[in-house]
Amino acid sequence: MFTIYHNPRCSKSRETLELLQQHSQQIEIIEYLKSPPSAAELQQILAKLGISARQLIRNKEDEYQQLGLADTSLTDAQLIAAMVAQPKLIERPIVVCGNKAVIGRPASNVLTLLP
Fold it and tell me: Which residues are catalytic?
């Protein structure tokens, strides 16, 4: 079972979903802008990705500047709270399968999750 945190307006997200659909029948699609993950869910996703919260933030978004998120003294918990409050800041798409996850940039990254 694959879970994709998806933004249908994003071409990379659509490409990743299409690639998943070619390889799997069981896909849970979460439109994270409508149903954002909780802080606990984001912590689990980060652990599966093996990256820090800062590495998951889209730093080109206006909200990144407005919220002062470039401040390197901010903790992972503070960055996660910002992503929960402003899900647009979450890098996309994220694909989770079991205890592993990848960011679908490029879409071919999801191939590493396939059996």
Answer: 10
Tokens of 35: 């149903």
pLDDT (tens digit, 0 to 9) for every residue of the chain, 115 residues total?
Answer: 999 999 999 999 999 999 999 987 799 999 999 999 999 999 999 999 999 999 999 999 999 999 999 999 999 999 999 999 999 999 999 999 999 999 999 999 999 998 8
Give ∠ CA 105-14-114 in degrees, rounded to 5.
60
Domains identified in the chain and CATH numbers:
1-32+92-115 (3.40.30.10), 37-89 (3.40.30.10)
